[in-house]
């Protein structure tokens, strides 16, 4: 019986192989493209990170020395801190404001479609164009932001020209750009919610806050987690606004990992060091993504 079972299993596998063989012609091109565009560049980047390589000069294999130098590079370590500081603010504030905006625009009122369209217009602009506009607004003497502060009796701010306010100022740009994105995701969640729990809550005399905290928030939480995942990965990779507005300055006060990477690769021509930064940066993004995906699994769909 055992021999019969083995032979039958072998025959079944051979039959499956014959059926799959015609489809291999469709699979191989995809594998070649993925290898050429994704796998090979990553392997080449890892290999470059193991070399001391300046653009225009010969390379020298140095093993893990680039990574060891990064571990003691104060500027690199500070750029990690700036990256997380920027990311936390650029994710948390748009999430809160986007949720509030979604709750407002979910209600029916005259002109709701017009105001929704007006609110999402910042998403249509390119980050570079937006950064140039905000650069003029941040100017300490000529910028409109300090003029608005003067109207309410507040002292002028240095905005992106002071080390203590540069990152919060850059986060203002991120809030203006990406709060509409969060609003759209949350609006989709609100539109899919059932009405029965709210009707029952009204009969029981629940307040608006109680209905939000006990009904709306748990049901919309999965949508918020999706928005948080997308915004976190996007904020970690932020480069255009930071580079165009202040080039990572003043000094290195707003130098994130992306800006540090750009400087190493294109300002100092340190290809090996820049490649090591890419590998470390990728490891950080993967680790955060796994944490966020774990959080996504905890946010059960109702």
What report would you give on this structure?
The protein is flat. The chain has a two-stranded antiparallel sheet. The two termini are 50 Å apart. It has helices at 2-20, 24-49, 65-71, 74-106, 112-119, 127-137, 144-151, 166-191, 196-203, 208-236, 240-246, 257-267, 271-298, and strands spanning 51-52, 60-61. The mean pLDDT is 86. Helix 2 (24-49) crosses helix 13 (271-298) and helix 4 (74-106) runs parallel beside helix 8. It is mainly α.
Q: How would the blueprint of this fold be written?
A:
Elements: H1 2-20, H2 24-49, E1 51-52, E2 60-61, H3 65-71, H4 74-106, H5 112-119, H6 127-137, H7 144-151, H8 166-191, H9 196-203, H10 208-236, H11 240-246, H12 257-267, H13 271-298
Antiparallel strand pairs: 1-2
Helix pairs in contact: 2-13, 4-8, 4-10, 6-11, 8-10, 8-11, 10-13, 12-13
Which structural traits does this protein have?
single chain; 302 residues; mainly alpha; 1% strand; flat
Q: N- to C-terminal separation?
A: 50 Å
Helicity, as a percent range: over 70%
The stretches of 5 or more residues where confidence is low (pLDDT under 50) are none
Main sheet: strands, sense, barrel: 2 strands, antiparallel
Average pLDDT for all residues? 86
Radius of gyration, rounded?
A: 26 Å
SSE ordering: HHEEHHHHHHHHHHH
- How would you describe the shape? flat
- Range of strand content: under 5%
Please tally the helical runs, counting DSSP H or I stretches of 4 or more residues: 13
For the largest sheet, list the strands in their spatial order: 1-2
- Structure classification: mainly alpha
In total, the number of strands is 2
């Amino acid at each position: 019986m055992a021999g019969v079972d083995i032979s039958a299993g072998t025959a079944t596998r051979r039959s499956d192989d014959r059926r799959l063989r015609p489809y291999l012609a469709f699979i191989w091109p995809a594998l070649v493209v993925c290898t050429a565009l994704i796998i090979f560049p990553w392997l080449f980047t890892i290999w470059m990170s193991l070399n001391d390589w300046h653009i225009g000069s010969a390379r020298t294999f140095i093993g893990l020395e680039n990574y060891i130098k990064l571990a003691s590079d104060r500027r690199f370590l500070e750029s990690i801190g700036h990256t997380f500081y920027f990311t936390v603010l650029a994710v948390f504030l748009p999430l809160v404001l986007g949720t509030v905006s979604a709750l407002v625009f979910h209600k029916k009122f005259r002109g709701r479609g017009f105001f929704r369209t007006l609110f999402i217009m910042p998403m249509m602009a390119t980050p570079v164009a937006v950064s140039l506009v905000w650069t003029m607004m941040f100017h300490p003497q000529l910028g409109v932001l300090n003029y608005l502060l003067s109207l309410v009796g507040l002292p002028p701010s240095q905005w992106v020209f002071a080390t203590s306010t540069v990152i919060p100022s850059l986060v203002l740009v991120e809030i203006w750009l990406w709060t509409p994105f969060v609003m759209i995701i949350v609006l989709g969640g609100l539109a899919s919610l059932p009405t029965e729990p709210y009707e029952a809550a009204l009969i029981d005399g629940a307040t608006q806050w109680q209905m939000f905290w006990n009904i709306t928030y748990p049901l919309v939480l999965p949508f918020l987690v999706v928005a948080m995942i997308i915004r976190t990965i996007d904020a970690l990779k932020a480069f255009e606004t930071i580079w165009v507005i202040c080039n990572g300055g003043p000094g290195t006060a707003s130098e994130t990992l992306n800006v540090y990477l750009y400087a190493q690769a294109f300002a100092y021509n340190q290809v090996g060091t820049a490649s090591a930064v890419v590998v470390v940066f990728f490891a950080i993004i993967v680790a955060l993504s796994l944490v966020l995906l774990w959080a996504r699994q905890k946010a059960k769909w109702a």
